[in-house]
Design goal:
By secondary structure, the chain is mostly helical. The chain has 16 helices and no strands. The chain has a domain of 126 residues. α5 packs antiparallel against α10 and α6 runs antiparallel to α9. The two termini are 14 Å apart.
Length: 346
Amino acid sequence: MTPAASTTSHQEGVNITINSLIEAQTAFIKHWLQQQAEPLATEAWQWLGAQSLNKYLNADDLTRLINDGILTQPMSDIMRSDVRDIMRTLIYHPANDNVPLSDLVDETQIVTLATYIGNYEQQRNILISTFIGNETFADLLTQTLYHAINDFMETTLDRAGGVGKLMKMGRSSFEKATNRNLDEKLQTYLHRNIKDLAQRAEANAQAHLSNEEVTRLLVTGWARIKDQPVSRLQEYLRETPEHSSIDHLEASLQQSYNRLRLSPYLHSLVAAVVDTWYSNHQFDSIAELAASLNLGPSASMALSTTMIPMLNDALESDWFTTHIKEMLSAFYAQPDIKEGLGLQEL
């Protein structure tokens, strides 16, 4: 055998030996990891839980993650569709027919909230003034009284026979003599005087709606509806092919979100909130942070157990096998490893 042939034969033997080692070690690594998957997952969680937050993250990292990773991108159409479907499922679920509103809100919560609202006299007076003491309320009251008076007059004149006809003639004569429509004259009169009436109504409301009265009204109002089923809320929604209240609600929320998510105002709030939270928890371990979310060791163990099948599938995948072989090939390709194992080329 020539030296060249001998060298080639020896090289083939070296390659076969290395390839055999790689195959055997790849199989061993995969089998060993599969056998140790559960304790490794548990130990990994334990190790992660012992690490301090500030070892890997700072406040700027979290702020950048929220601003650049979350707020920069609009909510995807798929996610928006999921939100609508979930809202629709929750609102129209059959269980709502058998669950009263009182099961969702405790009676003591209503009393506490009503008392809290009732004790804010200044804010209550401002609210009353906003609703009653403004031009919109005055205009609404003017139109309401005008229609009531006009309807009464028309009904009375129609039933009054000859007297009604005489009154209609008088109305016509008045309009010709003054060159003004009686309806317009009536509305002008009501609007001019209704402001004083609105001010009186505001004063009466503030005088009679005491703290105790407001509390009583709120508690009484809750008592009237607390036994109604949750599904009663569906009456305030429409769900037809032409009009969906849920679609409209989701679209409105999305519009507000898109308007705010890139605003300097929201970004400044995010930075302030992150700084506050981070200053409170920067020295906490990951386990302590998880515990604050009620994710204790039992929850971590349950999560680890759930992930075992996925981990096993990953170990059996082609990409994992390929990477193990590439890693081992690079290892054995090192000259000192070849020399140390007596696999050097001739």
